[in-house]
Amino acid sequence: MSGVRPTRAARAGRAVVVAVALLWSLGPVAYGVVLAVRPFGEVTRDPLGLPSTLDLSAFATAMRDEADGGFGLGRFVLNSLGVALGTVVLSVAVCVLGAYAAARLRYRGRALTNGIILAVYLFPGIVLAVPKFVILSRLGLTGSLAGLLVVYVAATVPVALYMMRNFFLALPASVEEAALMDGCTLGQLLVRVVLPIAVPGVVATAIYVFMIAWNEYFYALLFLVQHRDLWTAPLGIAQLGDFQVPVTVLLAGSIAVTVPVVIIFFLAQRYIVSGLVQGAER
Amino acid sequence: MTSARTRENRSGWLLVSPSLTVVALVVLLPFALVVVFGFSEVRLVDIPFLGTEPIEWSLDNFRRAAASRAFWGALWTTVLYAGLTSAGSLAVGLVLALALRRPFRGRGLVRALLLVPYVLPVVAAATIWKTLLNPQYGLVNAFGRAYLGWDTPVGFLSTTSADVWGVPVPVALLVVVLFDVWKSAPLAFLFLTARLQSVPGEIEEAAALDGANRRQILRFVLLPQLRAVALLLLLLRFIWSFQTFDDVYLLTEGAGSTQVMAIQVYTELVTKADIGSAAAFGLLMSLILGVLLVGYVLLSRRAGES
């Protein structure tokens, strides 16, 4: 790497910064985990204590159905999962074609569509919340998971287009040119040549889209707050916070919905990061 | 030759048309409607009759917004919130990126762990922070009372202002800013790291050979290289924070003077059931954001050229 060797003081300074940074980033998360495995009574009696026993009952209480004395998080998770997977399928299917065309094909109006992609990616979403709410309630779709699905596809298409276009731009065009020379049609080219090499990009985009839909809170609140059986996991946790639910149960629920996203993010981290920071590397 | 041209033209449009259709339906159409709503008197109860009655155009929504303390208060809160958040997350990201610039054992793992707050679902993060700051059993208050001699617990998420050594401090707003810095600094760290990695090592070596010390290398070699991407990050974070709803609403629901613009839009729509007014607030927000976006595009052009 670089020839400027760090001095001993610089190394010590770095160690301190790294330790503080890790504490700052992970401390709150660790605190949440510790509290989730302590009985609620113990937490209120001794807020600074460490868990004396490993009590996992909060997780079960959070997940179980209301009928079984739980808080129904299991059902909220299923709702979230359905909407998030639907969003991924629709959003990626639409965007993979558009992103490829925007990155590779020289059609008339290409500059315009590329401009639209960037503009839409940066467009303030909150401004559109009001008309989207009105349109969907006019169609009778607020108060249904289908309405939420429409909104999530709408919210993720710009990001997905932007990310996948970056991935396609980073792939070498020579293979496709060779395939075209050999008389490949566009359909064959897409299925046999482009998709196989684009798989990492498509997967990374799909995961990112999944995370957005899985974590989304605002529209779920706007659409579904009065339909308890349709709550998504984030909405459920936020709403239960307003009831008299023991905080240990809330934290157990929070951790339960966090673990899957953290794991899949780290599996695809390299690709997602490169898709997001493209353009900053120049 | 022309036929190949035409074919490529046709396939291009064929492939982008689904994307463009979705964009038209979910971005352009709603945007047209928000303009209509902003300039007319529509309330939630009118939704079933929309499209069946002629629109009555008026400027009342904007007039009322301009005359209301809620609007100007929310605007000021939002600017403060977005400004502090973007500065804070850039500063934290910069420190992290510089500290992790050189390889050391376990760097990959440290980098990955630093991303956790960014990946965490906002609801989970807010639940943890609310517990952390809870006046009864939260860690911060328990620690403060046990070791720092606090007489009464501090309501971090509901206190508008508290005197610290005679200086009024907007407690709840600062907590929300801190939360957002915590969540968003990792992204700044990623962008800055990507940029730092593309700085050729030779520049630094040359500077060191010329007798530059570490501080001078940082000041005159590294920071100038980061300026463009830092400006972009600052602007992007400001644009994103300017429209934040989730983080603030989940932590405070707008208590303790943290009513940002997005919460104001939500209140106008849901609590006051006034679509026109909510739309007008949203339009005024997007006017400000539009100016910032133009700035962003100009900046990224310049960054692209240099």
From TrEMBL, chain A:
Tell me which GO cellular component terms the UniProt record holds.
Answer: plasma membrane
Annotated membrane-spanning segments are 81-103, 115-135, 141-164, 189-214, 249-268
User: Where's the ABC transmembrane type-1 domain?
Assistant: 77-268
Keyword check for Transmembrane, yes or no: yes
**SUPFAM superfamilies xref list:** MetI-like (SSF161098)
The membrane-topology field of this record reads: Multi-pass membrane protein
Is Transmembrane helix set as a keyword in this record?
A: yes
- A Pfam short name: BPD_transp_1
Q: What biological processes does GO assign it?
A: transmembrane transport
Localization (cell): Cell membrane
Keywords of the record: Cell membrane, Membrane, Transmembrane, Transmembrane helix, Transport
Recorded family membership? Belongs to the binding-protein-dependent transport system permease family.
Question: What is the protein name for this chain?
Answer: Carbohydrate ABC transporter membrane protein 2, CUT1 family (TC 3.A.1.1.-)
Automatic annotation (TrEMBL), chain B:
Where is this protein localized, as stated in its record?
Cell membrane
Classification via PROSITE patterns: ABC_TM1
How would you describe this protein's topology in the membrane?
A: Multi-pass membrane protein
The record, for InterPro entries, names: MetI-like (IPR000515), MetI-like_sf (IPR035906), UgpAE/MalFG_permease (IPR050809)
- UniProt record, GO biological process: transmembrane transport
Its family remark reads:
Belongs to the binding-protein-dependent transport system permease family.
Cross-referenced PANTHER family: BLL4140 PROTEIN, DIACETYLCHITOBIOSE UPTAKE SYSTEM PERMEASE PROTEIN DASB
Chief localization class?
Answer: membrane
According to the entry, every stretch annotated as the ABC transmembrane type-1 domain falls at: 75-296
Q: Name one Pfam family in it.
A: BPD_transp_1
Q: What is this protein called?
A: Carbohydrate ABC transporter membrane protein 1, CUT1 family (TC 3.A.1.1.-)
Membrane-crossing residue ranges in chain numbering:
12-39, 79-100, 112-129, 164-182, 220-240, 275-299
> What are the UniProt keywords, alphabetically?
Cell membrane, Membrane, Transmembrane, Transmembrane helix, Transport
